[in-house]
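Handout, section B. The chain below has 201 residues.
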Amino acid sequence: MVVGFIILIGLVVYLILSIIVILIGVRYARKKGKSSWKYGLFAAIAMYLGIFWDFIPIHIAHKYYCEKEAGFTIYKTIEKWKEENPGVAETLMPNKSVASSITNDRKRYVLNQRFAWDINTTKHFLGIRKNDNRIIDTGTSQILAQYVDFSSGQSSLDPKEFRDFKFWIHTKSCEKDGRKQKRKEFYKFEGRVELLGSGKK
């Protein structure tokens, strides 16, 4: 609440400042016998770009990344993996620890003796984050399944830097319907891999 109130106050102050700048531009134009609406428009655009310059570019870029790279892909089914590794699945036991290890931009959760869930987070154009989730066969380094999503911004309730207060660049996911169907499919696949050898399906 406090952070939101501060942001609101800041935007109101900036709006007032913008109006003052526009009025100064209009008055200056009239004094010089120039087109007042052109000067006013120029001042308005300048003040808009001063803080909202990244609004349109970041949403265009986010849409582009979502269309080109986002989604859920199965490279090898669990059944196919079992065929290639006969008898191995029955020896696996789910890892009871929920702890993760972090190496550079990668966070790893060990699922069992043979599989891990890697989450690679990298930044792209205008700070858009690529969240690359992979189910890895640690014995061969092969990727069985992958879920890629993109987001930008950070909740203003938990700011890490100044841009986190810019709520207009905050995009949560490529899946807009709220159901996150592709993410659910990935979680379902991850759950099946984690339970290999446990007697559960």
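Note. The chain has five helices and six strands. Compare this with the example in section A.
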